[in-house]
Design goal:
With 219 residues, the protein is mainly α. The chain is built from ten helices and no strands. The chain is elongated, with a radius of gyration of 20 Å.
């Protein structure tokens, strides 16, 4: 299954692709700092230009509007990142592949936790289209892990009829680290958190289904 992120065109007046990439990374990085302190709405292009040590005109040379900065953030989280990572692992067994992909995804969530806090706080300021991109990116990651789990099921390695639900939990618990790191980091390092979550998921997937304890919800 190939998952393709939704990417819209962002206007630029520069034909130097490397320079555009460099300046957009600068703009997005400084913008995030300002947005987290002042909020998206209250942050002005003038403040952003000062933080980047550029003129307002130079900012608009690389982006068309402040909304474009939000879309630049979204380009950092598309599913191609983990698809490329998995391909780069080469020929390894599915259990190892799943464990490494969980590690990679959770590590990214730890490194970009401020971005997730920003998304959670400012999602209403995204355009309707970009809100759809943000939600689709999470959906794409869920389907990525779902396909990897299904591959293990087809190989007889994993035993579950709920691959999508487990994939959803893998993604959401990784995302949750970013939002609740302030609490979880008091009890676990990121490596410990990844190790414990991975062990839990692999137990759910590899334990004989007939021996799994069934828990019925209380009525």
């Amino acid at each position: 299954m190939t998952l393709t992120p939704i990417i819209r065109h962002i206007r630029t007046y520069s034909k130097n692709e490397n320079l555009v990439k460099e300046k957009r990374e600068l703009i997005a990085g400084e913008a995030l700092k300002l947005f987290l302190v002042n909020g998206y709405v209250k942050t002005t292009i003038r403040e952003l230009a000062e933080a980047c040590e550029l003129t307002e005109g130079a900012i608009y040379r690389y982006i068309g509007s402040k909304d474009d900065i939000l879309h630049l953030f979204l380009l950092r989280i598309n599913v191609n990142q983990i698809q490329d990572y998995l391909r780069g692992l080469g020929e390894i067994d599915t259990i190892e592949a799943l464990g490494k992909c969980i590690w990679q995804y959770y590590t990214w969530q730890d490194q970009t936790y401020e971005v997730n806090i920003f998304y959670n706080r400012e999602i209403n300021n995204f355009t309707r289209e970009d809100r759809r991109v943000l939600l689709k990116s999470q959906s794409d990651y869920i389907h990525f892990f779902d396909e990897l789990i299904k591959k293990g099921v087809s190989e007889g390695i994993f035993h579950t009829a709920d691959s999508l639900l487990i994939a959803h939990n893998i993604v959401m618990l990784g995302y949750d680290w970013g939002l609740r790191r302030w609490f979880l980091s008091q009890y676990f390092t990121i490596d410990e958190y990844i190790e414990k979550q991975t062990a839990m998921f692999l137990y759910l997937l590899t334990a004989d289904s007939e021996k799994k304890r069934k828990v019925s919800p209380k009525k």
